[in-house]
Structure to design on (425 residues):
């Protein structure tokens, strides 16, 4: 059992495991208290395995940069209750899908290097005009709202999905299927779905999840076969023809690449894009300032990403006994990395609860850090930049026209509704 000064008070620990807290200020109230009083403590909540909570920027960096000492290990890489964790461990005994976030050294680096050059700025710049054409269509959808509508539903939900599907090589007629199926995969994180799963055994849950993942695998098998026969310049062609140590990559790793590209490249960019529009609609004078000086767009994007921190948590494990931040961790301990907390750390960000595009440098960790730094960070920023370049000249004004609501999830969350009212130039 943890000693008293290590244990996180239940009132705060309970918020960390409540998806609803991630959709309001309760989460940041807890994070602020933890950074000041117990920045590396143990949370023990009924129904969940005990876990360390990492809330400081420097501790999160120390853990993230050491993929050997703090690997994925045998624990789930995303936070879930005890029933879900049992299911995850059972699922990983024979995984249909194995993504980069679930890989440890030396396997992780070998697989990461397969696509790392593809995601570098010089290469993705070749697709700028393709992305701009998609951005113009997204702007047309906004303009068709005739002055008011939900920015999430109208623009930011589909814009990054269309880009990432285009990059993967998925035909446009299959975009709706990919959106629905990826949302189903994240279904167990939704509180309504969790309530439904309470009365089901881990074997039943496993069967449902395998069925959903199986649909994705079956879909991408067709794409794999097509690209092996006729490679193009898309990412699928890179993956299906890639080799590690002279051999093609395994089917589960290939499926993992497909899935993480489709999901991580969609939800996170959607959330950050919505946050940038929220800032333009709520921060007095910001729209006019960025319109007058488009060179400020990258700073707006970085601050929107810091503010949104779409990936709220990732889980890692301690590979051996280790001291960190004055605490003694034991081999096998489970750690929750709280990115949204690190990106509000008062020791790193001056006035962290103010949206400020003048932060320089802006050392946010929204893309992670170290070996697992997000491969798609340059692509995400390019997508947001191009959309803003196409949209901002057309806006005379923009403001909120109702309540902006966040989704309820302790993994990936962001704005699910952003009602706006706008005038055009």
């Amino acid at each position: 059992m943890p000693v008293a000064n290590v244990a996180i008070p239940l009132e705060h620990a309970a918020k960390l495991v409540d998806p609803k807290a991630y959709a309001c200020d309760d989460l940041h109230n807890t994070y602020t208290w933890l950074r000041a009083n117990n920045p590396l403590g143990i949370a023990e909540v009924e129904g969940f395995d005990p876990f360390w909570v990492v809330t400081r920027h420097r501790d999160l960096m120390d853990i993230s940069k050491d993929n050997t000492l703090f690997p994925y290990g045998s624990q789930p890489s995303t936070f879930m209750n005890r029933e879900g964790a049992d299911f995850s461990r059972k699922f990983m005994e024979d995984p249909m899908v194995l993504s980069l976030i679930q890989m440890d050294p030396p396997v992780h680096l070998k697989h990461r290097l397969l696509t790392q050059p593809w995601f570098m700025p010089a290469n993705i710049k070749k697709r700028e005009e393709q992305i701009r054409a998609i951005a113009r269509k997204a702007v047309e959808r906004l303009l068709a709202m005739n002055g008011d509508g939900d920015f999430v539903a109208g623009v930011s939900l589909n814009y990054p999905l269309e880009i990432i599907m285009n990059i993967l090589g998925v035909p446009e007629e299959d975009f709706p299927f990919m959106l629905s199926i990826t949302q189903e995969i994240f279904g167990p994180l939704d509180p309504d779905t969790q309530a439904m799963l309470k009365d089901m055994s881990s074997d039943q849950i496993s069967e449902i999840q395998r069925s959903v993942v199986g649909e994705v695998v079956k879909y991408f098998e067709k794409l794999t076969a097509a690209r092996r026969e006729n490679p193009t310049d898309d990412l699928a062609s890179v993956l299906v023809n890639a080799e590690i140590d002279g051999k093609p990559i395994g089917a589960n790793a290939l499926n993992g690449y497909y899935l993480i590209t489709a999901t991580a490249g969609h939800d996170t960019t959607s959330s950050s894009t919505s946050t940038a529009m929220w800032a333009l609609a709520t921060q007095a004078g910001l729209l006019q300032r960025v319109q007058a000086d488009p060179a400020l767009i990258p700073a707006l994007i970085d601050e929107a990403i810091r503010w949104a921190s779409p990936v709220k948590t990732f889980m890692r494990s301690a590979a051996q006994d280790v001291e960190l931040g004055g605490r003694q961790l034991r081999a096998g301990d489970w750690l929750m990395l709280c990115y949204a907390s690190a990106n509000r750390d008062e020791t790193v960000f001056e006035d962290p609860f103010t949206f400020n595009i003048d932060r320089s440098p802006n050392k946010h960790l929204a893309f992670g850090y170290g070996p697992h730094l997000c491969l798609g960070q340059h692509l995400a920023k390019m997508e947001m930049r191009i959309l803003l370049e196409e949209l901002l000249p057309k806006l005379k004004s923009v403001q909120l026209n109702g309540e902006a609501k966040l989704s309820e999830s302790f993994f990936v969350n962001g704005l699910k509704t952003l009602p706006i009212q706008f005038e055009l130039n």
